[in-house]
Automatic annotation (TrEMBL), chain A:
<keyword id="KW-0472">Membrane</keyword>
<keyword id="KW-1133">Transmembrane helix</keyword>
<comment type="similarity">
    <text>Belongs to the EMC6 family.</text>
</comment>
<dbReference type="GO" id="GO:0000045">
    <property type="term" value="P:autophagosome assembly"/>
</dbReference>
<feature type="transmembrane region" description="Helical">
    <location>
        <begin position="94"/>
        <end position="114"/>
    </location>
</feature>
<dbReference type="Pfam" id="PF07019">
    <property type="entry name" value="EMC6"/>
</dbReference>
<keyword id="KW-0256">Endoplasmic reticulum</keyword>
<dbReference type="GO" id="GO:0034975">
    <property type="term" value="P:protein folding in endoplasmic reticulum"/>
</dbReference>
<dbReference type="InterPro" id="IPR008504">
    <property type="entry name" value="Emc6"/>
</dbReference>
TrEMBL record, chain B:
<keyword id="KW-0256">Endoplasmic reticulum</keyword>
<comment type="similarity">
    <text>Belongs to the membrane magnesium transporter (TC 1.A.67) family.</text>
</comment>
<feature type="transmembrane region" description="Helical">
    <location>
        <begin position="42"/>
        <end position="61"/>
    </location>
</feature>
<keyword id="KW-0472">Membrane</keyword>
<dbReference type="InterPro" id="IPR018937">
    <property type="entry name" value="MMgT"/>
</dbReference>
<keyword id="KW-0812">Transmembrane</keyword>
<protein>
    <submittedName>
        <fullName>Membrane magnesium transporter</fullName>
    </submittedName>
</protein>
<dbReference type="Pfam" id="PF10270">
    <property type="entry name" value="MMgT"/>
</dbReference>
<dbReference type="GO" id="GO:0005886">
    <property type="term" value="C:plasma membrane"/>
</dbReference>
Amino acid sequence: MAGRVDSDKLKEKASDNLNDLPTFNAENMQNNAKVMYYSRTFMSIIGGVVAGILGLTGLMGFVFYFLIMGITSAGLAAKAGFSIHSYFDSWNKILLDGFFGGLMSFVLFWTFAYDIVHIF
Amino acid sequence: MGVGFVVGVLGVLILSHAAYSTIQYRALLKITEEEFSGPPINVVVELIAGLMLCMWAALTVPGKFLSILPHSDENRVVALPENLDFMIFNHRGKAIPMGIDAKLK
């Protein structure tokens, strides 16, 4: 009786019990998050400079920021080949991560460029 | 890394040239005492070109995306248990010359 139970257990492969998909490779996840963070920060800075040169003020500037972030998200999705699940664990990460972190850099460089171009 | 970096620098140079053109345009407007409603069309084209170049550099320079699936081909060694409970040092391996594959990194 005990022998039969044991042979059933032997027939199971190791991968049958692995509910491994929720635990991802953490180092690569961190690498992907870092890459996304750098891309978004650089694009917010460039977007700020362009908004300052264009002379945008008030709400139009923030609309421009959301536009730049949307284009950056689309670019990142294209870079991942649109098969998001092999690089990130959810769609939210690629669309929203670092969205508001870049806002501060955007406003800083926006006022900087606006001052240089339009006030001095 | 090299090409993307150069493209990024080129984009930034184009943006600074556009900024300089806008400053000159504003000086001209001050002379003729008109309102600044927007930069001239060639500056806008330059800004769009600079933005495209910088966007391309921003997507390629920081590095590639690495797969996070535990069973994909490039993640093969991750499944090794790394804690000391599974490491045996007193075995016949000490008779073999050291040829450890660098894949463990």
